[in-house]
Write a structure and sequence with these properties.
By secondary structure, the chain is of the alpha/beta class. The chain has 14 helices and 21 strands. Bound molecules: ligand BES and zinc ion (2 copies).
Length: 501
């Protein structure tokens, strides 16, 4: 259950177990961020001296705990470092990360109050900051405990944020949006973190269908028989090696008076063993191979919760890629929906195969835009590392999505589809082959492959989230270990822009 979030007057004493304030690190030395005045006064104006005494610098991601020893109602102050920046114009993403890091340091604390900024009472003045605080806190408070046999510590129950105009309409709307965004990120992380023995095509289909129904969306689930009838040879081929048959889920959000339509497509490989070309590395990441599917489902649900005036369909192919006597083989030829054929040469490049079928289906609705996202290639990580998403597609739309992602606090980088890489996937015997004979530009070749299924003239983007979807290292900022929930915020920001919201 998500926490109750409220805005409170900075002068009102908010009942809490902890109060979070900010600190900055200008060259001249540590200072408190705006918003800390009341708590510092209650501490006799000695907060800065106390922070210096314990060696705090106010650097980004630094978290310092100061006990109040009975001087204030909350027994603990947590100081979130915000780095060296203009205190009057705090950077939203730095705030999200700082607050997220503070919440991670407080796991098990039920009532948290945050007093960062909130000092300007001009209508709408602090709304971006309030939203960043709420998003950072709710994303940072995430924990995934369903498999723990002993009860986890109390999760965050109540979050209050100091705001100069707590009843301001814009501030309230920003807070509501932040909660919807955080819920979508949480839903994505939960699906990604769920073990693949529990989350397989049928159960992923059931869960996303249930999310869709609860949000009032139209839901369609194609089982293996329906996939056969529909000619989805790619999804069926990839799913053939598993005892758990594949699915295709379609969610539709069609609000009244919407003018624009967007198709979302997300890769839903519930576990990627590589198939007969069995993986020799990183198989332990591969429950995250349905991160695109989870992000797309959570995004359309969030768009409905936000009542965005835009038509959206989510087309989500789901399969488990396993080696067995019934697996598809390197050198098989599969026929996609719509009739095009592909020569398989590596069963571990399965994502593009299920996505081709899904893109063909999504395009049949004649959308105005297409956004596809997938944990598609290890090459994405070689190119951009584990935190930067690779964006390919039509130049203008790709750049629009990259910019929207930047505003939302996710890192994307535009990548080319160099024409000289395209002939590498010509096939001698089928319409196209799956991979080239070498590793060069592997992320871009995958983008080329997908592009051949996108109708000419349809603005589209392919977002390769292979690395960013899964955090194999330690937690940082608002990002936990495991599923990160990445790309939900980018897709939502893009949909909002296209909806003119
Ligand atoms: N799911 C993987 C890509 C991946 C790798 C995601 C590492 C996250 C972390 C994908 O299905 C895959 O195996 N791709 C191959 C393609 C290759 C055979 C052309 C790869 O990247 O090695
Ligand atoms: Zn694979
Ligand atoms: Zn895969």
């Amino acid at each position: 259950m998500s926490a109750a979030v409220s805005l409170v007057d900075p002068a009102a004493a908010a009942p809490a177990d902890v109060v979070i304030i900010g600190a900055l690190s200008p060259a001249s030395g540590l200072v408190l961020a705006p918003g800390a005045e009341a708590i510092d006064k209650a501490m006799g104006g000695r907060l800065l001296a106390g922070l210096r005494a314990v060696g705090a610098k106010g650097r980004a991601d630094e978290v310092t705990k100061i006990p109040t020893l009975g001087l204030t109602e909350p027994p603990l102050i947590v100081v979130a470092g915000l780095g060296d920046q203009d205190p009057a114009a705090l950077d939203a993403e730095v705030v999200r990360r700082a607050v997220g890091a503070a919440l991670r340091a407080l796991s098990g604390t039920a009532r948290v109050h945050i007093a960062i900024g909130g000092t300007s009472s001009a209508p709408g003045a602090d709304t971006a900051l309030l939203a960043a605080i709420a998003e950072g806190a709710l994303m940072g408070a995430y924990s995934f405990t369903i498999y723990k046999s002993s009860p986890p510590p109390t999760p965050l129950r109540r979050l209050s944020i100091a705001a100069a105009s707590p009843r301001d309409r814009l501030a309230k709307a920003a807070l509501k949006r932040a909660q919807i965004v955080a819920d979508a990120v949480t839903a994505t992380r939960d699906l990604v973190n769920t073990a693949p023995n529990e989350l397989y095509p049928q159960t992923l289909a059931e869960r996303t269908a249930e999310m869709g129904r609860a949000a009032g969306l139209t839901v369609e689930v194609l089982d293996e028989r329906a996939l056969k009838r529909g000619g989805y040879g790619g999804i069926l081929g990839v799913g053939a090696g598993s005892v758990r048959p594949p699915r295709l889920v379609r969610l539709t959000y069609a609000p009244p008076r919407a003018k624009t339509s967007v198709a979302l497509v997300g890769k839903g490989i519930t576990f990627d063993s590589g198939g007969l070309n069995i993986k020799s590395a990183m198989m332990d990441w591969m429950k995250s191979d349905m991160s695109g599917a989870a992000a797309v489902a959570a995004t359309i649900v969030a768009a409905a919760a936000l009542r965005l005036p835009i038509n959206i369909t989510a087309t989500i192919p789901m399969a488990e890629n396993m080696p067995s006597g019934s697996s598809y083989r390197p050198s098989d030829v599969l026929t996609f929906r719509g009739g095009r054929t592909v020569e398989i040469n590596n069963t571990d490049a399965e994502g593009r195969i299920i996505l081709a079928d899904a893109i063909v289906r999504a395009a049949e609705d004649k959308p105005d835009y297409l956004i596809e996202t997938s944990t598609l290639t290890g090459a994405q990580m070689v190119s951009l590392g584990t935190r930067v998403v690779g964006a390919m597609g039509s130049d203008d739309f790709r750049d629009l999505v990259v910019a929207a992602g930047g505003r939302a606090g996710e890192s994307l980088w535009p990548m080319p589809l160099p024409p000289e890489l395209r002939p590498g996937i010509d096939s001698a015997i089928a319409d196209i082959t799956q991979v080239t004979g070498d590793r060069w530009g592997g992320m871009l070749v995958a983008g080329h492959f997908l592009s051949t299924f996108v109708p000419t003239g349809l603005p589209w983007v392919h977002l390769d989230i292979a690395g960013p979807a899964w955090n194999a290292g330690g937690p940082h900022g608002y990002t936990p270990k495991g599923g990160t929930g990445v790309i939900v915020r980018t897709m939502l920001a893009t949909l909002e822009e296209l909806a003119g919201a």
